[in-house]
Design brief:
Layout: H1 3-30, H2 48-67, H3 75-99, H4 103-127, H5 129-156
Helix pairs in contact: 1-2, 1-3, 2-5, 3-4, 4-5
């Protein structure tokens, strides 16, 4: 399969996961989420969709670049396994936080998500330097999201 097709397929999977996660958050954004006390550094709601869309595209490109090296490197399967786990955890966080309205459970889960993203980054950079670099904004955003999640939990416990 051609490199570009692999990248496009993975980008579509990532954006689809993001879209499905968004369906869980939509109702809560207008009902439950506004009732929470949030820290001063909480971004406006409109920023999340474009940031996540860009991150899902970058994640998909990264995974596509790694997938493209499948025949060249035995580490690829392991790296893509970590990628799949973190993508699943990414979707789960939205359900825990916005679907179940459970910031503490979401906080525990986002720490696991961060660890899986970090390991995915470590695996990707061994296979393709650009793929590793493409994961860094995602890691940074989830680092921020972890602090935000912890703050929301703390302010509303």
């Amino acid at each position: 399969m051609q490199k570009i097709i692999k990248i496009v397929l993975v980008v579509l999977v990532c954006v689809s996961v993001g879209y499905l996660s968004g369906t869980v958050t939509r109702d809560s954004i207008t009902t439950w989420y506004p009732t929470l006390v949030k820290p001063v550094f909480n971004p406006p709601n409109w920023i999340f969709a474009p940031v996540w869309t860009l991150l899902y595209i970058m994640m998909g490109i990264a995974a596509g670049l790694v997938w493209n090296r499948y025949s060249e490197n035995s580490l690829v399967q392991k790296a893509l396994g970590f990628f799949a786990i973190q993508l699943g955890l990414n979707a789960l966080w939205s359900y825990l936080f916005f679907g179940l309205h459970n910031p503490i459970l979401a906080l525990i889960e986002i720490v696991l998500l961060w660890l899986m993203i970090f390991e995915t980054y470590n695996q990707f950079k061994k296979i393709d330097k650009v793929a590793g670099l493409l994961m860094l904004p995602y890691l940074a955003w989830v680092s921020f999201a972890t602090i935000l999640n912890a703050s929301i939990w703390w302010l509303n416990k």
